[in-house]
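Re-run requested by the PI after the first attempt was lost when the workstation crashed. Everything re-entered from the original request form. Ligand of interest: nicotinamide-adenine-dinucleotide.
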Amino acid sequence: MTDTRIDVRSPADASIVGSVASLSATEVAAAVTGIRTEQPGWETLGIRGRREWLERYRDWLLDHDDEVTGLLQAETSKPLQEARLELAMSLDLINYYCKNAEAFLADEHPRGHSVITKSKRLTITRHPYPVVGVITPWNVPLLIALADSAPALLAGAAVVVKPSELTPLATQRVIDGWQEIGAPGVFVCTPGAGATGAAVVEEADFIQFTGSTRTGIRIGRRAAERLIPSSLELGGKDAMIVLADADLERASNAAVWGGMFNSGQACVSVERVYVEASVHDEFVRRVTQKAWTVRVGTNDGASKADIGPLISSTQLAIVTTQVQDAVSKGATVVTGGERAQPQGGAFFQPTVLTGVDHTMQVMQEETFGPTLPIMKVANATEAIRLANDSPYGLSASVWTRNTERGREVARRLEAGAVNVNDVLSNLFLFPAPHAGWKKSGTGERLGGAAGIRKYCREQAIIESRITPHDEPLWFPYTPGKHRLIWRLLRFMIARDANRKLRKFGR
Ligand code: NAD
């Protein structure tokens, strides 16, 4: 076993809150061999047998909620409410797929599409990729690890999880829990940094990656070289469009929560806001007033803070640089704009910026901080154009009292999900696809049947209902047979009588 360890530090005060082994490529290979050996037995259990284990696992997670959320809080310093929400969403998702997996993975029998093919019986079956590699980021580490692993396990795959080196503790603990309930050895955690993740990409048969676009491209490239599929859930720059007839009170509350939830470190955070000119000033006034009341600090349930620190000094530097870049190009800091220092950790003040434009990093690059840059626009058309002027396309929101208009605007946005009069709610709707467009990703996370079928290879089984000794298409090719077949095919394919019945020379 490796003697290299990674110390995990609290983002609030940089104290060491735990440590994990950092696995080498050889150790990852050995771990994957172990779960690969167990996978056929797991698959043979069938969906009902696997579901029983997942349900027992859900109960173990419920019974260990304080311990797990405690670890999650220690490594992320996120408020207790948000740590619990991660766990609750994970459990809800386990229930969702336990309830629906059997139907989602059931054999299908599509009917033959034409008279000729009606003589065949078609069965579509689904077989899991033997080993699924799940590579996760630090922002919602527990939810992503469990949400990606549970459907893969239910599908019959073995799963290896490589958590972020910044936040491996809760993930490692919940995967230990799988062993504690005595479940088959098909779920393993391989902590480490980027090189350990790269080793997972070498060993697995399917990669479910969540993280930055930069790393996603590297993984996608390597997966293509290995000819294995990958689902890449990457960065975002979600736009919020506030039309003149919006409920400004709800919209401003949502902007502050949607932009600053998890200190703005959510892939689907509100990252930029476009507001129609006639309501811009009033919207900014309300947002600013609310941003003032957002409390910065740590929150263990007793203390009162709404947002914790950023994950690291690197993230703090990115947010600071982007705000400074905006100011240097003419933006106004209405509130916040600087590091906050309740405990000397990587805290940043809730920040509202106005007078922003698309030359600024805050409007173009993922910020991942508690920042709300607000831009005045002439009308919905300009808002849509600017919202689409981004390399990213994860999700977005539209605010209007006219929901029909909201839907129309939504359809014109280049984003995988659009909330009308809401933020982040697409994440809580498991039947909805969560799939980024453009540089926000490829493939899809969640999304009803697609969210579990993606872990399977489809197989078509074709049976002939009638089995004569010979078939008209088979050898020998004779002019008589050829004429007959071609006449039949013409008759079937052509859509007008003339072409159906036309004589032909050869
Ligand atoms: P990151 O890309 O730096 O790291 C993600 C994971 O990849 C980590 O576990 C890391 O160790 C691993 N890794 C790094 N190099 C690797 C390599 N060469 N091969 C294999 N694995 C490697 O991302 P991060 O900073 O941890 O996470 C933040 C990013 O995640 C943001 O861009 C955010 O938008 C994105 N994110 C996206 C979604 C989504 O669903 N679209 C959800 C959450 C976070």
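Saved to the shared folder this time. Residues 80-105 form the longest helix (26 residues).
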